[in-house]
Amino acid sequence: MGKHPDHSANLNRVKRIRGQIDGIERMILDNRYCPDILNQTKAVGSAIRSLESSLLKRHLEHCVANAFEQSDEVERGKKINELLEIFSRRLDK
Predict the structure, then answer these.
(1) What is the pTM of this model?
(2) Which range, 3-12, 20-29, 48-57, is most confident?
(3) What whole-number distance in Å separates Cα of residue 29 and Cα of residue 46?
(4) What is the C-alpha to C-alpha distance for residues 26 and 30, in angstroms, rounded to an integer?
């Protein structure tokens, strides 16, 4: 269909998440206090949800908008079904 959007702005988020996960691993190896580890896992979950939201926003602004501007009804229908599947998976959590 078209060129995919540039996702490089999210690389810092991914690096931060990787650092948080490495920190959790160290905490486990150091036998840290359970609630401290749980707080960090919660932070990782929040960071991943933020990354997902950023990616979804970019997808809507770029890919979906382009599909509706430049595609026929069949392609627009495919994009709508793709979005429904994305939202369905997010709601199944």
Answers:
(1) 0.81
(2) 20-29
(3) 23
(4) 6
